[in-house]
Each structure stands twice: as structure tokens, then as C-alpha cells.
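[job 0412] stage=complex_fold ligand=zinc ion status=START
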Amino acid sequence: MSVKPSAGGAAACHVCGESCTGFQPHSWRKACVSCGCSAVDHAPGSDVEEDQRMGRLLADSPCSHLTVKVKGGGGLRVYKRNRMIVTNPVVARKEATFNTTTYDWAPAGLNQTLAMQYMELIPQSQHPVLGTDGALERQRQLSSQLPAYDQDPMKCQSLASEEEISTMLLFVKSYKQEVLGVGEVALPGEGGALMEAANQRTAKDAKDGSHSGRKDAAAHQDHGSSNSATASATVSTNGTDDQTGHRCTGCRGEVAKESPAVYAERAGYHGALWHPTCFVCSECGRGLADLVYFWSGQKLFCGRHYCQTVWPRCSGCDELIFCQSFHTAKDGRTWHRHHYCCWKCGQHLDTPCQH
Ligand SMILES: [Zn+2]
Ligand SMILES: [Zn+2]
Ligand SMILES: [Zn+2]
Ligand SMILES: [Zn+2]
Ligand SMILES: [Zn+2]
Ligand SMILES: [Zn+2]
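[job 0412] stage=complex_fold status=DONE, emitting C-alpha cells
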């Protein structure tokens, strides 16, 4: 199934289908006034927007090697998303024809065989194949797990003072440096090779500064080809003992030696690895979109749920609350004071309205 915008050009709702006339943004809630569903339930933004958002998130983090400088963008970085095109010959015909499948995303730095083994380990419904529900689901998970308004004060509507803005900027800076990471797929015992290769490249770039611009430009055109041999030449095993086997940090089950697993640099490469289906947020249990994780208190989180362990989130506008005074309901849910009201008529929630 492919998703098309509705006739009016506004994005139709994935949940309501035809009954929503297209996304009509509410003034402060991240929701549609015509159907009430959230913005992410409507067809997501363009790939370009998404890659810019991801680029901004990963820049200034240990994962900045997954971004490239925008040409003439004054230091702006964009996500170097790893698309993968798989070509299979169709055998049932006399003339050789080929079937190509495009994956909107695949783990970085793997050869295609290993990347396909990884895909086979996650449910088919989550395969981000271009034009399918799996690709749409990936985009929805990215928007919901990594909301733009958890990363950039410019995307927030509810920051009320300079002080709140600087509190947020400090928070974002510290999670990028200390908590955020992108999982790496490798065979058990081989985790860390990608990061090592990236570090070597960075060191080389620093030494050989005059060439770095040219290199970035080349990398920018490098979409499509997934198997740029980033790591293969510099693979170093990290000395895990084969005799003891490898256990998944998530389910404690065994990870077969020939089966790709996910490593997280923040958790260390010695002993911590996950089955691809166990690499999930400890709060919502969802698979971590594009393997972007937040590591805190020895647990994996998606961005949304990590941020909520540090700051309350407003149940009205869905933004984090950086001010001292906010409303907490009996069930523990929190609101900006001025958002504790019916989003249709503005009535205070303690006095119920017909909505
Ligand atoms: Zn809807
Ligand atoms: Zn709608
Ligand atoms: Zn597991
Ligand atoms: Zn979560
Ligand atoms: Zn709010
Ligand atoms: Zn109302």
C-alpha cells in the first residue's frame, strides 16, 4: 500500500483514512482539528525534512560520522541515511530480468548479505521498503520517538522565557554528549569495528584537513550504495571468549555466532549486545527507529521516553515542560497550566464540557 496525500494536498490521516479531510493543525496541540489524531498519524514530512532533523540531532554527538556537511550550508549537517538497493534476478523468464527492492534505511557499514540477515531477523511489517507500510511505520516511529520539539527550541511553541530556552539548550547539549547513540549491527564478538573505523577516519581528516571538503562532497552523493566498505578493512574483534557464548542484554537468551546483533557504544562493546528484536525502548517496548537510542541508568530508551525521565511532558501540547509551575493531575499526567483545558473550547478540565 502506498500513501498519497488527499486531494486538497494536506496529508490524509493514517488512522481515519477517508473520513479526515487532511491534516489541519491545531493552534498549540500537535494534533489535527479535523479528526483529532496526532500529527504523526498523518502522512509524515518529506525525507529531506527528516534527514535535516536527524542531521541536527546527530551533529555534535559521538555519532556525527553518520552525518555530512551540507555544501555551502555554513556548517549545517544532514543525516547520511544508508539506503539499500537489493537486486534479485527473476528466474521464471527466458530473458534475464531483475527485481529491485529499495530499503529506505539499513544499518550502516555492513555488506549487503549481513544487512539482509539483519532485516530477516526483524518482523516483515517493519521492513522499511520504499512505498510500503513498513517505510511509513519507520517514519512515524522516528517522529514519535525523536520529536523535533525535544531537540530544537525553534520547534517549540511553549517555551515562555529566555531562561527556559537556555535550560533546554543545556539539556539537549548534555544528552547529545552523554546519552545519545546509534546502535551498530555486527556479528557477535565484532562490535566496535564501525566506531573504530569512524574514529580513524576522523583522525585522518584532522591530519589531512585540505581533503576533508572534497571527501564530504563525495559522501553526499553516496546514497544508494549501501556497501561502501567502511569497516571491513579495519575489523578487529574485541576478544570476547567464544567458549562462553554471547548473551543478549535484553532477554538473556543466547545470540548465535553467525547471527547479526546490535551493539551500543554507550553500553560498551564487551559483553553488551542485543538480538535485533530486543533492541527496544525499556519504557514503550518499541523497536528503536534507525537504531537511535538513549542510554541511561543501564537501560535503553527512545528519545521521547528518555527526555520524560528528566523533564515532565505536557499532555496538551506534547512538549517538555521547563518551567517550575505546571499542573499535575491525580493520574500523574502533567500539563502547562494554560494547556490544562479542553482543546476544542478552552474550558478548564476540572469543569467538564461536552467534548
Ligand atoms: Zn485521524
Ligand atoms: Zn486528520
Ligand atoms: Zn534478546
Ligand atoms: Zn519509548
Ligand atoms: Zn503544553
Ligand atoms: Zn470543550
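The radius of gyration is 22 Å.
[job 0412] exit 0
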